[in-house]
Design goal:
homotetramer, 196 residues, Arc Repressor Mutant, subunit A, Tetracycline Repressor, domain 2, 2 domains, elongated, DNA-binding
Chain lengths: 196, 196, 196, 196
DNA sequence: GATGAATGAGCTTTCATTCAT
DNA sequence: GATGAATGAAAGCTCATTCAT
């Protein structure tokens, strides 16, 4: 499986370089050097610089989705599920600091330039949250007036903002677990029906 | 007031152009044309391209802070204050769609490249939230175990993610008021002590 | 005599700035600042940047010619005259280091760009040497086979090369007097008829 | 020999263009066009515009030194050696009019701007003269009171001034041989001990 | 498939010159 | 006469992309 070999080498190199310098400041030759291939070789696997970013994005988000879905597979309690999602999302940061930085960028910047590109993978990823919320509502745990379509964004946004903070600041003020707990706590507390 | 005139014309043009094309894809000549000045004129008011972005950022965030603080001045109830903050933040989007897009960008991208730049204005802006939360805790309304330093980021992130969604999608699924209400609701519900 | 006042202020400022940064690297605004006038004012007295250089050159060489001719006025011995010329030429360096550097430049570079400009003043200056040599030949002191038209250039070139060396090196190896003596000595020795 | 091929093509083109327009007025695109390569190609072989000039200078002076030393190899008489040096130096002019003009420029202008660059090659070239003078003194032909360190500069300056004259004026008044002879004659006459 | 030398469009920035005040 | 803000052409340099080997 020669081909996917090179493809992956380039993708991984691109993650590093984009994270280090940002998409616009990254040069193709940087990626080529990091991947230990010739500049021209990259164009055998990708159409252009943007294509690397999108391709990378789809690939990596895809992997993450598989992983999260696996983690949630054996869990049925929506509250626990949200906690798992939060913890895993923040875990990504620790484990794949570089990748996260690139996704941060991709999510914001690039759509502007690649109008035709609809990041369906990303939508699939955050829809996991709305599915959990929906399930919680159906089972009677979560408040009915809450809109899953908004909550999914709010939850993701809250987590994401924290990871952004970490990726920028040298020494985080809060630990990963603490943050995951606080955020899922506030959302769960906010979602859950009161007893009285 | 010749000087501040041109300065402002350029700033406003830059907001438009950066929003339209993104910082990296925006050309100085685009901004110049939009501002109806010569390319060189821009360099009489700004040191370089980055300087336009930072300058613009500081200026605009400054104005927003003044505005929000004014709105909160006569309100003492932390719950109401959070609602006001949320509503106003989302309002920015409607009123200044372009500006928001640029700030989005600035908040994420630029720090990478202008390491020395510390966006103190932005910190001042989100610290308004932690101040409200802190006040709520001191007055006994909000749960003590919640950390204002995390909540401020989560709250901002939640709102911000929504605005990002809007700035990208053609037709928003939710109205501004609906969104503001949902998000402040979930946070307030999550923050507030239960009676029992 | 307002006009010549400003004209002179600008000329003197230009000498300083050209010497410091070279003609091409000197900015009009540098000269304006040095002369404590507005940029635009310079264009009331000079047609363009080149014009400043040429004008400066003509003016300053003119003054030097007057000065040298004055020094030679009361001297009739061609040998002494050559020594005076050499000493005075090198003296310029010490006294007007900056001016000399600019002249160095002008003599070489600029003619290329201002084709129409014939530096008649400079020719007048070195013709003093050929006149001395010619006089020496007529009076029977100097060898007849020597060509004044070549000697004038060689003599000037020899002196000039020394001054260039000085203007570039931090600490000259030889004193001014020593150099003037050595050079006029070698030329005089070379020019003078042998007794036998 | 692909690489040195392009390098040389660019160097030769640069000589022509610098000679034609001067270093500052020469555009990279002029050189590129002259060399029949793309603008960007130049930057594969040189770091920047200055680098072309310095590189060119070092290369060409290097070749000249080799050539002159070869010519002097079989000659032991200092007087003859000086004549050879003079003749060869002036010959350069005829053969490589353009190169000489560029070197003229380099010798004067550039050091100002490229302070860190010490043109060691050039020093090596003129040190050939002081070595000859020194040898002549040791062998008792030349006067002891003459300082080789001054003479080398004076001799070079004299020759150089002549070549400058030629490179500027359309029709030289003197032939090459005539000039070489006159100048070495005056120096030799000036250097040599008198019989009485 | 792989290479990397070559390309050249494109962009930021500078600065001589102008001209309304 | 004097000013200096404004102009805009011009140029060095970068780098995504191509293509001959």
């Amino acid at each position: 499986m020669r081909v996917s070999d090179k493809h992956q080498k380039i993708t991984q190199a691109a993650v590093k370089v984009f994270a280090r310098k940002g998409f616009f400041n990254a040069r193709i030759s940087d990626i080529a050097k990091e991947a230990k291939v010739a500049d021209g070789t990259i164009y055998l696997y990708f159409n252009n610089k943007y294509d690397i970013l999108i391709s990378l994005f789809e690939d990596e988000i895809g992997k993450i989705i598989v992983k999260v879905k696996l983690l949630l597979e054996n869990e049925t309690d929506p509250q626990k599920m949200l906690q798992i999602y939060a913890l895993h999302h923040l875990n990504l940061l620790q484990e794949q600091k570089e990748l996260v930085e690139v996704l941060q960028m991709e999510l914001r910047q690039s759509n502007k330039f690649i109008k035709e590109y609809r990041n369906t993978k990303f939508i699939e990823y955050i829809d996991i949250v709305s599915d959990i919320v929906h399930k919680g509502q159906q089972e009677g745990h979560f408040r009915q007036e809450v809109k899953p379509g908004i909550i999914k964004r709010a939850f993701f946004g809250a987590l994401d903002e924290m990871s952004r903070l970490w990726s920028l600041s040298a020494k985080p003020h809060y630990t990963l677990e603490e943050t995951a707990e606080q955020i899922s706590d506030i959302f769960l507390y906010g979602l859950t029906k009161r007893d009285n």
